Amino acid sequence: MVANMHGAVLRHGAGLVRAAAQRNALAGPRAHAARALSAAASQGEGKNIRIGIIKEGEERVGMVPENLDKLVKKGAEVQVQDGAGVAAGFSNSQYEAAGAKIVSGEEVWKSDVVVTINKPSSDDLKKLEDRLIVSQLQARNDPAVYDQLAEQKATGLSLDMLMRTLSRGQAFDVLSSQANVAGYRAVIEAGYQFQRPFAGQMTAAGRINPARVLVCGTGVAGLAAIQAAKNLGAVVNAFDVRAAAAEQVQSMGANFLKVESDEDGSAAGGYAKEMSAEWFEAARKMLLKECASTDIIITTAQIPGKKAPVLITKEMVEAMPSGGVTVDLAASTGGNVETTQLDKVVSITGKNGQTINCVGYGNMPARMASVASTLFGGNVSKLLLSMYDKEGNFVVNESDEAVRSMLIVNAGKKLEPYNPPPPPVAPVSDEPKEEPKPVDPQQKTLETVLLGTGISSAAIGVGSKVPDTGLLATFALSVWLGSGSVRGVAHSLHSPLMSITNAISGMTIVGGMLQLGGGILPHTMPQLLGATAVTLSAVNLTGGFMVTNKMLDMFRRKDDPPEFNHYYLLPPAVAVGGLGLASLAGNSSAVAGTLGLASGLGCIAGISQMSSQSTTRIAPYAAMGGVGMGIASALQAMDVPASVYGQLAITSAIGGGAGYALAGRIGPTQLPQAVAGFHSLVGVAATSTAVGDFLTHDFTHFDGFHASSIYLGAFMGSITATGSVIAFGKLAEMMSTDALALPGRDALNIGMGAGSLLGLAGFLTTSDPTIAGACLASGVGLSGLMGLHMTASIGGADMPVVITLLNSYSGWALCAEGMILDSPVLTIVGALIGSSGAFLTNVMCEGMNRSLANVILGGFGTSTGGAGVASDDDLVVTEIDSAGTAEALKGASKVLFVPGYGLAVAQAQGIVADISSKLIAEGKTVHHCAHSVAGRMPGQLNVLLAEAGVPYDIVLDMEEISDDEMADYDVAVVIGANDTINKAARDDPSCAIAGMPVIPVWLAKHCVVLKRSANPRSGYANLANTTFGENNCDLLLGSAKDTLEQIRSNL
């Protein structure tokens, strides 16, 4: 078992351990290093520096070939001592292929910058002369290093002096990366000495208990050991002088042992302090009792600059069970176990005659030389790259906190140990704080009542102008029902909800039907407009319902029982048959009115069924029944020659056929632009009906209500049509998704809006049909231009809001059509769609912490960059490979996938579903979580996952995962999402997305983000994503589809 695990890490170790090293590194507040250059002339500075890699007396090497690429591109000349990497598995030819030059031992010391893992001898340091060395110089233990470097006028960067609480410096932390390897390898070495499997077994021959492992010291090495032992099936206990470590230990599934003492061992700089004699006595009693039942003890406790504390005494070792093992990772600094002998494995006889083996290897990382060297070189290469300034010069910058904390000598000048400056203290104001005034209940109630009075008075005033109060009541109730029916709809069903409301808005066909005339072909302009409305509405009806059914079928699970939802078309079919019988009996008028009411109720039922996954596939059939009854009611109201019915059949067939053909070609990624395209058809149909009604009837007989309805119907239809065309172009990427920023943008919108209002005023006050027609034409033209300009001025980031807003517009246009024709059916359906669309728009705005006015008038979708304290230079990112990601998933017990629009672009949802299935089959808990505004329309990512076969019951809304629950996930894999996971939305009140609800993937134990490039500004908001700089976050670069395929292969 141990051999197999070791082999897996040797194959994929670079990616896995790199991820683990960064994940377990101690976190701290971000410090912003100044960029001014040191006044002193520092060695090794310039553009074309030479970097030397020394061959040391051990297996590891300071840098490996894969660490050299970026340094070579910077213009550095890398010189590698002949054979330096052979012991770690890297040949001279590999270094040469990476751009390095192979040189002799004497030549390599003449490099401008010399890199070693271990402190060089005094004789070797003399070869450095006055140049720069980067190494673990152990200056705390050997002050002579200070003196020799200063005497030679050299510069020394001691990697072991890094201020570990500096967030930016975590990428340079060689102690953490090497400790991580050591912690893992300690478990492997213990397994070699241990004569039992780690995991318990139940066999016919008897029971084997799981190994009990105790880890003393839970820094980076300790946590790595805990994880490795847990993965092998051991029962793990751990203890540490720092009480704060308990949470980390418990989060990894281990038990934290607490010493009965109030003393805490946390110290400054991310290290532990030396404890008192009283604490050691309390710890001794606890550990003596624990050792009696512990099979393996791994110790990792070290104090910088001092001898390692003895935690496990000989008495404790002798109390261990037979076959017990100790592995002392502090052997090189004296050892935590009293029986440890450096670089030896010794056998101790216990108090009952049992044998305990004590392992004291002093250089544990060297036993995994390839991986350890890769990580060490990765830390050093990131450090060296960070030392280049903006002009491309390599400089030793004392104002850089990370560099300064490691800098012990600069050009011969000895430097004191670095003490970071205290954080700035906020100025204390002399003015007394103004206490918030208590809320007066009477005043608050009065304000609410006055607001309600104003609204109700305005409603009564408007209602008094409506000739048919029954129609007004229908409108009011439909608005209430519309907003209420969508409140319970989950985010995952927002796309199908929009699709079905878009299909229902094809009821504009009723207005077109009532304007048909002539014969097989229309004879007049109003008749032509009616035929146009019928054709376009038929496209919308057929295509809309087909797309809705296609979406909902994607949510069907493999084990769902068969469904017979088409049976729900029987009741409306019977009702339509009843209308036919009533027509034959000469009593169709009363039945037609009832059928119209039933039509509206059917549409309401269709939308209401969208609130639950268990009923959602009933919704299209209920809505189709409602639409069918509405069309039948309109047929009864038509009093035209038989040839006109032929015209109706032809136009409906043309539109329906086109809708069928279009819907058949629409895939999941084309859904957003398809919905926008269908919206535009509804807008044209509504405008055609309104203009046709104006041309058909005597304008002088219009009252103010009907005249207003005609104008508003044409206005809403026109703005819907043009806005939808622009939205279609942006979503289909047929035009730039950037916001159009014309000079005087807001003034243009205000001018067009004012012009439209003037047109309405002229339309209502004139009795001259010519002037009225001109006013109506101006209103249609200006509203069309306004829809075009306003949508073009909204950036691609806000397209989900635009889609829902256009959905609402199409509903209000249909409602106005109902008012024009005195049709309760169209009024019900239009108000239903308009109010539900408005509610969805509000949901989308809340999902981005935006107001509707902010979206329409321009927000971050219109900017070219986001403000904020996080700059690209502050973000130090770490990378992982596909193999490392696969290993992380294998070691996880709980996994979260977070898809973004990048998943849709890559068309990789099928691979994600397959990976998810594989992990579930292995007994892991897997969830998916899509942001409510991720993608190009609400709920688009949920539809994509459903299409790939991901069961909807493991796809969570973001509100279903709290911060505490996010911390339970071992790995969070982000695929093509950016703004929706940006930590700056929470941390930076000055950034463009401040306050926007985001998915806090940075709280997971390990976060892997799949991206095409390391550019932190690739989101819609063009804002640096601070999540990428988190210590537990790694970037997996490349095509999402390719990298996911590689992960699947490695699994």
Automatic annotation (TrEMBL):
Alanine dehydrogenase/pyridine nucleotide transhydrogenase N-terminal domain location: 52-182
Span of domain Alanine dehydrogenase/pyridine nucleotide transhydrogenase NAD(H)-binding: 191-358
SMART domains, per the entry: AlaDh_PNT_C (SM01002), AlaDh_PNT_N (SM01003)
Transmembrane regions: 528-547, 567-584, 590-607, 619-638, 644-663, 675-696, 708-728, 771-789, 826-845
Gene3D superfamilies, alphabetized: NAD(P)-binding Rossmann-like Domain, TPP-binding domain
Membrane topology: Multi-pass membrane protein
GO biological process: NADPH regeneration
UniProt entry keywords in alphabetical sequence: Cell inner membrane, Cell membrane, Membrane, NAD, NADP, Nucleotide-binding, Translocase, Transmembrane, Transmembrane helix
Enzyme class: translocase
Record region (Disordered): 413-442
GO molecular function: NADP binding; proton-translocating NAD(P)+ transhydrogenase activity
Enzyme Commission designation: 7.1.1.1
A GO CC annotation given for this chain: plasma membrane
Localization terms from the record: Cell inner membrane
Reactions listed under catalytic activity: NAD(+) + NADPH + H(+)(in) = NADH + NADP(+) + H(+)(out)
SUPFAM superfamilies reported for this sequence: DHS-like NAD/FAD-binding domain, Formate/glycerate dehydrogenase catalytic domain-like, NAD(P)-binding Rossmann-fold domains
Protein's UniProt name: proton-translocating NAD(P)(+) transhydrogenase
Species for this entry: Hondaea fermentalgiana
